[in-house]
Amino acid sequence: MPIKPTQGLKNLSSNNLRYDLSQIRINRSISELIQMGKNNREKIPFEAFAQFKPVKRDAVSGIKHVEHKLIQELLPLRHKRLAASAFSFFRGTDELMAFDLSKQVSSNIPVVISGDAHIGNFGFYASPERKLLFDLNDFDESTIGSWDWDVRRLLVSIVLAGEQIGLNLAQSKEIMQSAVETYQQILSECFDEHSAMERYYFSTEVENFLKQEADDEPLPKLWRKILTSASQRDSEQVVKKFTTIDKRGHLIFRENAPRTVHVSDKRFKEISNHLVKYDQTVSPDVAVLLSQFHISDIVRHSVGVGSFGTRCYLVLLTAIDGSHLVLQIKEALQTRRFQGFDVTTPYSQNGPDNGERIVTCQQVLQRASDPLLGFYHNDDSNRSYYVRQFWDMKESMNLTKMDHDDFQTYAKICALLLARGHAQSPTAAIVRGYIGKKKKLANSLVAWAASYSEQVHKDYHNFLTALAANQL
């Protein structure tokens, strides 16, 4: 079934679904914003960040509620992924930390945040010009929120991922310290040395990072290997790995139940119709490109850890010249909320479509995004989805293969990119004024992250206990 030509943006839903970015727009000069941040230190001193305040909640109950909305037959595989390690559990249960963060001391200076900026959510992908980029690459929890939520999640992930490669807490604290100092340095440079346009045009191209190998701190050795393998991950490679020829001679996806299964005829038609809505959210040049393709096959295909069990699909498209494109459709769930644990912040919005929220925030935080990135809303089921290319030079670092030095360099690069992403919000100038360059902030955030990592281990233990008792 062909994707119908776009009818233009005028056919999109009414404006009450638009994600509102007015909270990060402010009519002040950079110097005024920086001074606002400095003044805020008197109200919320750095020392107030240091102590983790335990929150009364039941982690297992929270997980159950989240999973109530997921595909039930996939839960055993999801549980297996969560149980792999404390870091895997942390990756897949971001709602627990979000609730805990909402009860901690925060500066509450808003920027567009990833919402899930752990060290495993940075990776490689292709720019529209087919250059290999390295940047944040997961935005399911992205929203407008306090900058420190992202920084704290990055720091805790350093502790938990560090444990997997044999780092002790003292070594992890050293790496966390350097990550915070990098974040401070980059944010300072963004607003003290660079113009708005220079901040916008900052390059995350991998070749630029590789050129820095002559510096005192070379990049992880794994990057060269990734550069080669990522360039080979495109739709044609997906076709070779994931498809087969059926009895009628048609190219179709290969099944691997329950992770990968073909959709019903009814769902096939539903998704085909919804891709027409998606087509109206991409740029005109992409719409023209898509008009050359027809849908050959669709499967439900689950990926990730936290998103495993959500409604995700792969769509095989064939062009009029016989080439292929594989789109990934992912369900966009409401961010950070589950029964009994309301994670409402001063910046929460109830109106926007969640697919549009994810796409909007991704385009703000990333230097360049997938040109095929778009979204649609299923009015019948009231579910939101976002659409992107599958694979398309996407690759991630294998953290377990890193040594101490590589891991420290990698963590600093992630902190650099996080600061660059936050700096796209004008309000980040207030953050720059608040955080300054002193080590007091790093000391406090590192102490908090070390304490919170113990909470993650407690939650992980309770999860494993409930799993063994068949309570999940």
Shape: globular
Order of adjacent strands in the largest pleated sheet = 7-8-9-10-14-13
Largest sheet: 6 strands, antiparallel
How far the N terminus sits from the C terminus, by CA atoms, comes to 40 Å
SS elements, strand count:
15
Q: Which radius of gyration do the C-alpha atoms yield?
A: 22 Å
Unreliable residue stretches: 1-16
* Whole-number total of structural domains: 1
What share of the residues does DSSP label as strand, in percent? Answer: 15-25%
Structural class category? alpha+beta
Number of helices: 17
Helical fraction equals 40-55%
User: What does the average pLDDT come to?
Assistant: 88
Task: Give the secondary structure arrangement, pairings included.
Blueprint: H1 30-43, H2 59-68, H3 75-82, H4 86-92, H5 94-101, E1 110-113, E2 122-126, E3 132-136, E4 143-146, H6 147-164, H7 169-192, H8 196-200, H9 206-210, H10 222-230, H11 235-242, E5 243-245, E6 251-253, E7 260-262, H12 265-279, H13 284-290, E8 293-301, E9 312-319, E10 324-332, E11 337-338, E12 341-342, H14 354-365, E13 374-378, E14 383-389, E15 395-396, H15 404-422, H16 428-435, H17 439-468
Antiparallel strand pairs: 1-4, 2-3, 2-15, 5-6, 7-8, 8-9, 9-10, 10-14, 11-12, 13-14
Describe it.
The chain has 472 residues and is α+β, with helices and mostly antiparallel strands. It has one domain. Helices cover 44% and strands 15% of the residues. Strands 7-8-9-10-14-13 form a six-stranded antiparallel sheet. Strands 3-2-15 form a three-stranded antiparallel sheet. Helix 7 (169-192) runs parallel beside helix 15. The two termini are 40 Å apart. Mean pLDDT is 88; it is low at 1-16.
